[in-house]
Amino acid sequence: MEIFERLESEVRSYCRGWPVVFNEARGSYIYDEAGSPYLDFFAGAGSLNYGHNNPELKSKLLDYILGDSVVHSLDAYSVAKRDFLQIFGEVILEPRGLDYKVQFPGPAGNNAVEAALKLARKYTGRETVISFTNGFHGMTLGALAVTGNSMKRGGAGVPLNHAATMPFDNYMDGQTPDFLWLRSLLEDSGSGLDKPAAVIVETVQGEGGINVASAEWLRGLADLCKEYDLLLIVDDIQMGCGRTGPFFSFEEAGIVPDIVTLSKSIGGYGMPMALTLFKRELDVWEPGEHNGTFRGPNPAFVTGTAALDKYWRDDRFQKETVAKGELVEARLKAIAEEHAEVGAHARGRGLARGIAFEQPGLAKAVCREAFDRGLLMETSGPEDEVAKLLPALTTTEEELERGLDILAEATRAAVKVPQPA
């Protein structure tokens, strides 16, 4: 560990909760350098929906690299990009009736969000973007301005402007806001709210605590955006690519966002790639007006194409994810009921799940006990009050059951240990 502590920045975080050196990974397991296995219910924060080193995706990647194919191409045309665009249109966009243009803004989710915010402002000529309590959209300045977490915002070092925060679904004592407040602000010339360019929202807030927006609330938000000529941006970076069941997390609500951001598992293999999707009429970019050196990640195009071809040509994978989500939900509810005295309750959708605890520090203790038993998890929520599960969508039911058994044991152990105030 000495080399990491001596040379790596103090900003490192996950390694503090997982104090081992990892070396190999296959499927739903990752192994430390001593060969000890850890069942991975973190999946690269949702970047590994198809598991570690998925053999079919790996085979395509190896063939591509061994063939001296183009790796880096900026936004030049390449065979790998053509193949990806063709299958993305054929398998994802066309069956859903989505007439989106595709922008490759850079390698990471924050690149997709920054492009979405810039495009919304350019198209409308307005500056303000509405975001929601406990939302998370990235760590660059534009994305951070529409992020709720005060600790992360505090690291900016400059004012984070041109954003307005509204309550997310169920934020106010479990009540579902009906947008009356926002409607009043938009209609009252004395409200102090400049007419916004857009609204940005996660259908399920991952980093914010696995907060699930209802389909009714999302439809109400979409209707309000249409009524007041605001662009609706859905950030599907963590919850897209099948995490909640359907490929896009907003499908259940029956809405069609103006702009969608994708990253994490869109590359299939955990390789960096991001997309900003938008309705055709919004494509007002000038050539080169938004660019980046690594916006042509050909190896990720290859593995992304392979993942779409293998998992998304029919609805079998989606149905399997929904069924697995129901299994996890039932087990989490049982664990929560066992520990009602500490205010435990389950939440989530699909294979984005969590247990929230009212007792401070308990979720961290649960994740620590889980790690000691060979299970990787993380916390989320503004006070780290949620023990969060993001297993690979390819995790088998047997592996899910094993991980949930470990979680049940870890929770019992953590509840017995006095937590610091």
UniProtKB/TrEMBL annotation:
Cofactor: pyridoxal 5'-phosphate
UniProt keyword Transferase present: yes
Gene3D superfamilies named among the record's database cross-references: Aspartate Aminotransferase, domain 1, Type I PLP-dependent aspartate aminotransferase-like (Major domain)
Keywords attached to this entry: Aminotransferase, Pyridoxal phosphate, Transferase
GO molecular function: diaminobutyrate-2-oxoglutarate transaminase activity; diaminobutyrate-pyruvate transaminase activity; pyridoxal phosphate binding
Claim: Cell cycle is one of the keywords in the record: no
Any Pfam family hit: Aminotran_3
CDD domains named in the record: OAT_like
Enzyme class: transferase
A GO BP annotation: ectoine biosynthetic process
Entry EC number(s): 2.6.1.76
NCBIfam families, per the entry: dat, ectoine_ectB, PRK09264.1
PANTHER family, alphabetized: DIAMINOBUTYRATE--2-OXOGLUTARATE AMINOTRANSFERASE, DIAMINOBUTYRATE--2-OXOGLUTARATE TRANSAMINASE
Protein name: Diaminobutyrate--2-oxoglutarate transaminase
Organism, as annotated: Spinactinospora alkalitolerans
Lineage, uppermost ranks: Bacteria, Bacillati, Actinomycetota, Actinomycetes, Streptosporangiales
